[in-house]
Specification:
The structure holds 2 protein chains of 2 kinds.
Chain A lengths: L12 H5 L8 H4 L3 H19 L4 H24 L9 H10 L2 H31 L5 H20 L2 H4 L4 H4 L5 H9 L1
Helix pairs in contact in A: 6-7
Chain B lengths: L4 H29 L26 H9 L7 H16 L6 H26 L5 H16 L3 H37 L5 H10 L1
Helix pairs in contact in B: 1-3, 1-4, 2-6, 4-6, 5-6
Classes of the chains: A mainly alpha, B mainly alpha.
Chain lengths: 185, 200
């Protein structure tokens, strides 16, 4: 649950994003190679987080979404193969034996329908945060901005594509560059 | 009608951005105008300037020092307001896209200066050299950001305040001369006092 403390790094991210992540400890890294690698990976992740503008809670939300959407994507790729993704031949063949074309089309249609509903639900939740006006002025506004930052990340995220949502739903033709030009004019 | 996922996501971001931007510029304006949360109708203590000649409650000293004082840097209230705006823009979360960030900076700055000008005109802003210095400082920022229309609006306000300031300076000088003239008047002698008393 996101707290609304005034200086929470997700509510007022500039201080967190402009700070240096904790350097790997010499004591722990001198113990063995795996601990040294782990400490370095944490440090590297901390730098990457700051470069990408990801505060801790935002990073957690996006990581969980990516993990869940990847798992769902792996499942559906068996039935609706994505371009560039190769499944195990024997596994795919087994699925083809079980499902005929009509069943696969029905399953695909239902999957896409549920995927788009799930994406709608995510956007509705964020909309609730963005439009929420409860609480003191500055806290309410900064909480709204946090919801906006999640939305900003989602606009760049391949989530709907991973879930095989339709092209119309994904806005595949509306690239980030078009958005920039819209804003600029 | 927004249908697609990305379009709706971007729209949500834009809604939150507008909401936050509005809050930031109004807070920054209040900081500049000296309106505090505790006392929303008064100016802060470090705001020493005069507002208009018609404010008879102001002391002669205040009017003279405000109109004749020559500033050398932006006022603390302007510095505070601009730092607040800058810090808040960082909190908007656009760190990885310089062009988008630049657009947001310009929009926020434009909005801030617009609400500031409206407030200064509505509330009768201080006609003093420090305020004119602050306006020139804002103008320099606008020139640097290539916001020429905004610079012209600042010029108009500066010209109006300059006219008021001229009257104030003239008034201040008259006060100073009057004060010095009074001091040079010779004290009445005892003979004159006696003469005056005998008349009664």
């Amino acid at each position: 649950m996101l707290t609304t403390e005034r200086f929470h790094p997700d509510i007022q991210p500039s201080e967190f994003l402009l700070s240096a992540p904790p350097a790997p400890s010499v004591m722990s890294s001198s113990l063995n190679l795996s601990m040294m690698q782990s400490a370095f990976q944490r440090f590297k992740h901390g730098i990457e987080q700051r470069i990408e503008g990801m505060t801790p809670y935002l990073d957690k939300i996006m990581t969980e979404l990516d993990t869940l959407s990847s798992a769902l994507s792996d499942d559906i790729d068996v039935i609706i193969p994505n371009d560039g993704k190769r499944q195990s031949v024997s596994f795919t063949f087994a699925i083809f034996l079980i499902l005929n074309t009509s069943s696969r089309q029905t399953l695909e249609k239902e999957f896409i329908e549920h995927a788009e509903q799930a994406c709608d639900r995510i956007l509705s939740l964020i909309q609730g945060v963005v439009e929420d006006v409860s609480g003191r002025g500055d806290v309410s506004v900064r909480r709204s901005m946090f919801g906006g930052r999640i939305a900003h990340e989602l606009a760049l995220n391949p989530l709907p594509g991973h879930l095989h949502c339709s092209n119309a739903y994904c806005d595949s033709k509306s690239s980030y560059a078009i958005w920039l030009s819209d804003v600029a004019h | 009608m927004l249908s697609g996922f990305r379009k709706r996501s971007r729209n949500l971001y834009d809604i939150s951005l507008r909401k936050c931007m509005q809050f930031v510029v109004l807070t920054a304006r209040d900081q500049f105008m000296g309106v505090t949360e505790e006392n929303p109708k008064t100016r802060s203590q470090d705001c020493k300037s005069t507002t208009a000649i018609s404010q008879h409650s102001l002391s002669t000293h205040t009017i003279c020092s405000a109109s004749l004082f020559t500033p050398s840097h932006p006022s603390s209230r302007l510095t505070k307001s601009l730092l607040f705006v800058a810090e808040s823009v960082q909190d908007f979360g656009i760190f990885d896209d310089p062009s988008r960030r630049s657009t947001i900076v310009d929009e926020t700055l434009t909005e801030f200066i617009h609400v500031l000008i409206v407030a200064m005109r509505e509330k009768g802003e201080n006609a003093d050299r420090q305020t004119l210095w602050d306006l020139r400082f804002l103008r320099a920022i606008c020139e640097d950001r290539e916001l020429s229309e905004l610079a012209l609006v600042l010029d108009e306000l500066s010209t109006d305040l300059q006219k008021v300031l001229s009257v104030l300076v003239s008034y201040s000088l008259t006060l100073i001369i009057s004060y010095r003239t009074m001091r040079t008047i010779p004290k009445p002698t005892s003979k004159a006092v006696s003469s005056a008393l005998s008349l009664k």
